[in-house]
TrEMBL record:
Pfam families: HATPase_c, PAS_4
Histidine kinase domain location: 442-625
InterPro entries reported in the protein's UniProt record: HATPase_C_sf, HATPase_dom, His_kinase_dom, PAS, PAS-assoc_C, PAS-like_dom_sf, PAS_4, Sig_transdc_His_kin-like_C
Domain PAS: 222-256
EC number in record: 2.7.13.3
Name of the protein described by the UniProt record: histidine kinase
Region listing for Disordered, in residue ranges: 606-626
SMART domains attached to this UniProt entry: HATPase_c
Organism: Hyalangium minutum
Alphabetized GO MF terms: ATP binding; protein histidine kinase activity
Catalytic activity reported: ATP + protein L-histidine = ADP + protein N-phospho-L-histidine
Gene3D superfamilies: Histidine kinase-like ATPase, C-terminal domain, PAS domain
Domain PAC: 291-346
Annotated GO biological process: phosphorelay signal transduction system
Length: 626
């Protein structure tokens, strides 16, 4: 993957800095291989050692030539040159610094002591340059070796030489013996002071070096962890400066860059995009990142011959002063995720269709169940009417009428002299009473039959009304809608002996999809009915409550039953698709009810004290319209 940047395509990276000058390279050539591979702080001391040795070789060689020209013996200078050359030979062969440094310090000490005694000049030992030897000894070989060298110089120059000068009877006309001894005493103190300053410098340097090494070690560990973290991910990650040059990139980023452009990404080289259109699209995002903002966007790349959608995240890269010096980029291939989201969206829409159909089926089941119970009552009433009509005394009335018709010509004689005629008035009175009772019974059954038919018409009409308004937002009176849901289960509730308790607090009308809310209520009541059916309790109660929230923004509809209850381990899974505790359940009803509640911008929850202690389902809905 490549980034647009302000760097020109023809811009080249600056040449790498030269790590060593010509002089340092010559000094390193005089060191052995182990010494050249030393730490930078130690390498400085080793270079100084061979540099000082080279200087003294050159100095003593020139001095020997000058001595020959002046007619003086050159032997001491030539011997000193050979000794300093021996230091260089040891430095070229030694694996440690101790042998050449010991020889160099010995040569320097012998040289200054020899010059002092040979020349019989008291000012050599008291010259300030002599204090450089203890400082150099401490820097080169450490405080202990430096102290030994300093003590040697102190004894030889500040004690031995004054004694030699005095015992030899030497004197200076302008310098008294007491002042002479005082000068060498303070010279010794100067040597000790120089050693102390060198030792203090070494101690401070070692402490700083230790702290620096710890910091570098921690930094290295942190860098290794960060590098391992970046390399462990398959997502491209890189950083670049404000000129568009690559600072670092993980293997995934380099691989994507190679796949897209056919060339390797090089650290320090411009990391730019060759497509002008992409550079134009990315320019605003880059500007935001360089201004200190985090930016996230999506872009398409053609990788491995296919179009891939990448999620790009740009973050500012801050320097030590807190200023933006570049940016970091993280990218993730989200092609599969987007495809999965698309399929999930299709599945969600299909699930909603199924849930709507399932909800309609639930309502239809309630309708059919209620209509079936009512039809059963109608059928019973019809059978009773038929049986009563078959056993009716109307046939006795017909026979009485036929008997009267037979005696039409002699009715007075029939009523006064015929035994049947004499019983006729009492018979008619008894028959009329029986026919009156039959009529009353038939009217009662016909009223029951008419009520059943009216109930069926009411249920069918209500279902038609809800079916015609499915998906439409309308103002709904919650008590009225809950009562309609209860009517769908009224017959089964009555047969099971379930007592309905209503606890409706006053709430304003709710703007909602009536049909969807009815599906939820019917489903909750159906679950409550099953829970009450399976409960051995005689006190079977279903409590429906309506409560507004204290903030006035929501309303709660609670369906509470005294049924079998819910086990604590089942509560978290209750609304998961496919989960059911019923022997014949499909695990879909509560799941689609929860989905429908979310579509209404609400929430469906449940709680139960435990098995055998009933359950409460709470539907929370917003009062304001969506």
């Amino acid at each position: 993957m490549a980034l647009p940047s302000s760097a020109s395509p023809t811009q080249t990276a600056p040449p790498p800095p030269v790590s060593r000058s010509w002089l340092l390279a010559r000094l390193d050539s005089l060191l052995s291989e182990p010494l050249r591979k030393a730490l930078p702080a130690d390498l400085v001391r080793y270079r100084l050692l061979v540099g000082v040795a080279c200087f003294f070789v050159l100095f003593n060689t020139l001095y020997a030539l000058g001595a020959l020209w002046a007619g003086l013996p050159p032997a001491p200078s030539l011997v000193a040159s050979l000794l300093y050359m021996s230091v260089l030979v040891l430095a070229r062969r030694a694996s440690t610094i101790q042998p050449p440094s010991a020889l160099l310090l010995a040569c320097m000490a012998i040289a200054i002591i020899g010059a002092t005694f040979e020349g019989r000049v008291p000012f050599v030992s008291t010259h300030a340059i002599s204090t450089l030897i203890p400082v150099f000894a401490v820097y080169l070989a450490g405080a202990r070796v430096g102290f030994f060298v300093t003590l040697t110089l102190l004894i030889a120059l500040c004690v031995g030489y004054p004694l030699y000068f005095t015992l030899a009877g030497l004197s200076l006309p302008h310098l008294s013996p007491s002042l002479f001894w005082l000068m060498h005493l303070f010279s010794g103190l100067s040597l000790l002071g120089a050693w102390g300053i060198g030792a203090l410098h070494n101690t401070a340097r070692d402490a700083a070096q230790g702290s620096r090494e710890q910091t570098l070690k921690a930094l290295q560990q942190s860098e290794n962890k960060l590098s391992s973290l970046l390399e462990s991910t398959d997502d491209p990650a890189l950083s670049m400066d404000k000129e568009g040059r690559l600072i670092t990139a993980n293997a995934a980023a380099k691989q994507v860059h190679f796949q897209q452009f056919g060339k390797e990404a090089v650290v320090g080289q411009p990391f730019w995009v060759e497509e002008p259109e992409r550079a134009r699209r990315w320019a605003p995002y880059m500007a935001q990142a360089f201004s200190g903002q985090r930016v996230r966007f999506e872009d398409e790349f053609e990788l491995r011959g296919s179009l891939r959608l990448m999620d790009i995240s740009l973050s500012p890269l801050l320097g030590e002063d807190g200023q933006v010096v570049g940016l970091t980029l993280f990218a993730r291939d989200i092609t599969l995720r987007k495809e999965a989201e698309s399929r999930l969206g299709e599945m969600h829409r299909a699930l909603l269709d199924v849930s709507r159909q399932a909800g309609m089926a639930e309502v239809a089941t309630g309708v059919l169940h209620n209509v079936g119970n009512t039809l059963n009552s109608v059928n019973i009433s019809t059978g009773l009417v038929t049986d009563r009509l078959r056993a009716s005394r109307v046939s006795s009335l017909v026979r009485a009428a036929q008997l009267l018709h037979k005696h039409t010509a002699d009715l007075p004689t029939f009523f006064t002299q015929d035994p049947k005629g004499q019983m006729f008035p009492a018979f008619l009175l008894t028959l009329s009473r029986q026919l009156q009772e039959e009529r009353d019974a038939l009217l009662q059954e016909m009223r029951s039959l008419s009520e059943g038919v009216d109930h069926i018409k009411s249920i069918v009409s209500m279902q038609q009304r809800h079916a015609s308004t499915a998906g439409v937002q309308e103002q709904v009176e919650l008590p009225q809608l809950i009562d309609e849901a209860l009517r769908l289960h009224a017959a089964s509730f009555e047969q099971l002996g379930i007592r309905i308790e209503r606890d409706y607090a006053p709430v304003p009308p709710l703007s909602v999809d009536r049909h969807k809310l009815l599906q939820i209520l019917v489903n909750l009541m159906s679950n409550a009915r099953h829970a009450l059916m399976e409960s051995p309790r005689q006190d079977k109660r279903l409590i429906i409550g309506i409560r507004p929230e204290p903030d006035g923004n929501q309303v709660r509809i609670q369906v509470t039953d005294t049924g079998v209850g819910i086990a604590p381990e089942n509560l978290p899974r209750l609304f998961m698709q496919g989960f059911t505790t019923k022997r014949t359940g499909h695990g879909f009803g509560l799941h689609i009810s929860a989905l429908a509640a979310e579509e209404l911008r609400g929430r469906l929850s449940s709680e139960s004290p435990g098995l055998g202690q009933g359950a409460t389902f709470t539907l929370e809905l917003p009062l304001e319209p969506s």
